[in-house]
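Hi R.,

As promised, here are both runs. First protein below:
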Amino acid sequence: MVTSDQRRRQLAREKYARQQQRRAEAQRKSRRNTVIASSLAVVLAAGLAVWASVALTGADKDDTKSDSAASASDTPSAEPTPSGQPEPAMSIDQKATYTMALKTNVGDIKVTMDAAKAPHTVNSFKHLADKKYFDGTKCHRLTTSGIFVLQCGDPKGDGTGGPGYSIPDENLNGLGKAGQDGSVTFPKGTVAMANAGPNTGGSQFFLVYKDTKLPPNYTPFGTFDADGLKVVEDVAKAGVQGGAGDGAPQKAVTIEKATVAKK
């Protein structure tokens, strides 16, 4: 049952999204900017594992893929959100560490974020959390084959939502230099941004619950604690709806409240 407080937060998010959309539309008309939502072409070398698109297609995934390889359609590209709205003004201490506390219906997840390495990303999360943007949102996607992530941060809950602005990529070398296969290892416990290509991050992010190889195209901006890792691992153990390797988690996850504070 939806409580009045949950309904109030939902209405506030919807109002905020409408305001962002109207501003973005007005600026796009005046500046004649058009965001082209095209397919992201990814060239894979042998053994390269890549992450699935943020927009769920409903297509069945091949569950026989090895842990170190995925198909070319499994790319970490997020559906672009309107970029006419400028990103939030920088308001954080760029030399500080911040903590994002995610209170979910299945347990708490504590994310530590380094503003020195990813100031635009941390600033955006602080801005959105202060507006209760993430409160009541679902973690809409789980992958259990080839790559191992739980994806959250979409107010629509279907992989197509965003804040109405984009933030730049940051800290792309933070996990080391890419190997001969063009990938780096995103260790379990890593938190990184989904995107639709260079400099198109919005609000969607993914939690890595098992070491995963990806091209170094996704901003790693934090890590989550052992208790949070256990929470995500339990969600992964329950699997994906319908028994696939990629889709909505069988064990539904809702972010009831998200707060960001300076450590």
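And here is the second one, sequence first, then its structure tokens:
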Amino acid sequence: MTKQGEHDLRNFCKMDAANVSNYKRCITDFTISACDQRSNHDELWFMNIRGSAFLWHQVCCMVAVLFLVGQGLESPSVVD
């Protein structure tokens, strides 16, 4: 989804304009891996996201977009 490096991630957060003036964050690692466990016969996946800091609800919004793309409700290009 997001390449390593610094990105303006304002579209992946709950806006907090009163307290945040810089929406750039540095992503140092982003991996998605299958887990060995299952839940109700569904395959589970693990996301590992590391960065210098995170915005309010940033990770939740990133995961939500991945679900929408996976369900075919959004094009992968929406991430750009």
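A quick note on the second one: The radius of gyration is 14 Å. Let me know what you think.

Best,
J.
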